[in-house]
Structures are given as C-alpha cells and as structure tokens.
Design brief:
mainly alpha; about 40% helix
Length: about 100
C-alpha cells in the first residue's frame, strides 16, 4: 500500500504474518475485517463521479495507538481539504 505497509486477505497470509511477528518483535500487524463489493467498473465510476473522498495511506494511521479515533482523524483531514463538505453533527436530526 505504502512504505512497508501491505494488505493480505487469506488465511495463509494471516498465518504467515503471525509466524513472522512471533519471530521478530519489530514487526507490527493489525487486523481489519469487513466486506465491500462492487460490480465491474462500478468503483472506478464512483471515483470518477467524486462519490468518494480519497486520502493518502499512512502507516501512522493504520497503526494508530487508538484505532477507534482513526475515523475522526481522517474525517478531519477531509473537512480541511474540502471546506464545503458539511461537518458531522452530534444531533442525528441534523445529519
């Protein structure tokens, strides 16, 4: 993905990562789970229309000490780069 950041999506890759981490304490890994799917060309079309905000990948965010704040940090970057995007409101009636 960037630098020394890689993505795997199979049990064999996960087992290899765990094996390597057990040998070298310098290696870090984090498991993100979920599922998203697009038909052929669908994602490219959505990106071309501007349906998605994209940000540069960052090891600091992927391995952030508190993964529960990463979404808010990323959204702050989106708001700073796109001043016209409405900001999140704690009142759900305003979202």
């Amino acid at each position: 993905v960037c630098g020394e950041l890689f993505v795997g999506n199979s049990p064999a890759v996960f087992e290899e990562v765990v094996r390597r981490v057990s040998i070298s304490a310098d290696l870090k890994f984090r498991v993100y789970a979920g599922c998203a799917g697009w038909g052929p060309g669908q994602l490219e079309g959505e990106l071309d229309r501007g349906d998605w905000f994209t940000l540069r990948a960052s090891e600091e965010l992927v391995f952030h000490d508190d993964p529960y704040v990463v979404w808010d940090l990323l959204m702050r970057q989106v708001y700073e780069a796109n001043r016209l995007v409405p900001h999140f409101s704690k009142n759900p009636e305003l979202n």
